[in-house]
Design goal:
The chain is an alpha/beta fold. The chain has one domain: Spore Coat Polysaccharide Biosynthesis Protein SpsA, Chain A. It has 10 helices and 11 strands.
Length: 279
């Protein structure tokens, strides 16, 4: 039986992807339980898929001729997977402290948990903010990439939005988790659905958490599991395009979930325009 299917959506980060896969391979805790590794390559031009064929023959490779985005790539991997649990993992990461075992053990003892993630660290060991409240018209101005948060990072609104009141000494429930590393319960996906492919990049993770929450599923951070994330390495080569996708995703998310009025749409457009100026 396959215990876990790990799905990695890759685009042009070959060496980081290989490092990520080595970390998973070296820290798999159960020799008697199956691990399934699936890499969805989104039209990389750096030889990523070819390198995997040589160095990681156990990895199943799905090679796309075009970039299908993060959610689209994840969905391809989910459909191809057979593990009891599914883990979506960024390629620019390294797992540590046996990340897999505490996440699976937490899911096994917490039946309402549909989604869980680890404590995510920067290379220097500092905490990376990968969880937050659901975006609303009033709190979106305090989002991590907003001009206000950039100018005044320690203001009370930003702290509340990023749920900085949480002390990561034990598993903590959060509203939305970032997609850098998410373990997903299959029963949750069957009820809620996969990632929304109308979101090319960014907020597909928040959207999934929001839909799961509406159905009574919970999202959690499990700090006993740790991950190093080389932040932005997967997107820095297309930074301007990805910033535009981020703004487009925000506008789509609000339209999907909150049925904005004309005035609210104008408010969003104005806010996103300001965001673009400061980008």
């Amino acid at each position: 039986m396959i215990e876990l299917s790990v799905i990695i959506v890759n685009r042009n980060v070959r060496e980081l992807l290989k490092q990520c896969l080595r970390s998973i391979r070296s820290q798999w805790p159960w020799p008697d339980k199956g691990l399934e590794l699936i890499v969805v390559d989104n039209a990389s031009s750096d030889g990523s898929a070819e390198a995997l064929s040589m160095d990681f023959p156990e990895v199943r490779i799905i090679k796309n001729a075009v970039n299908r985005g993060f959610g689209g790539g994840c969905n391809q991997g989910i459909k191809a997977s057979s593990g009891r649990y599914i883990m979506v993992l960024n390629p620019d990461t390294v797992i540590r402290n046996g990340l897999v075992q505490p996440l699976i053990e937490f899911m096994d003892r917490t039946p309402k948990a549909g989604i869980a993630g680890p404590k995510v660290l920067n290379q220097d060991g500092s905490l990376q903010p990968t969880y937050r409240r659901f975006p609303t018209y009033t709190n979106i101005i305090f989002a991590r990439k907003s001009p206000l948060s950039a100018i005044l990072p320690n203001n009370s609104g930003t702290k509340k939005y990023l749920q900085k009141e949480i002390i990561l000494d034990q598993p903590s429930r959060v509203e939305a988790l970032g997609g850098v590393c998410m373990i997903l319960r299959r029963e949750m996906l069957k009820e809620v659905g996969d990632f929304d492919e109308n979101i090319f990049m960014y907020l597909e993770d928040t959207d999934l958490c929001y839909r799961a929450n509406l159905k009574g599923w919970e999202s959690w951070v499990v700090p006993q599991a740790e991950l190093i994330h080389y932040w932005g390495k997967s997107t820095e080569q297309e930074e301007r395009e990805m910033a535009e996708e981020h703004r487009r995703s925000i506008y789509y998310y609000f339209g999907k979930h909150y049925a904005p009025s004309f005035i609210q749409k104008a408010y969003l457009r104005a806010g996103l325009y300001i965001h673009k100026i400061f980008d």
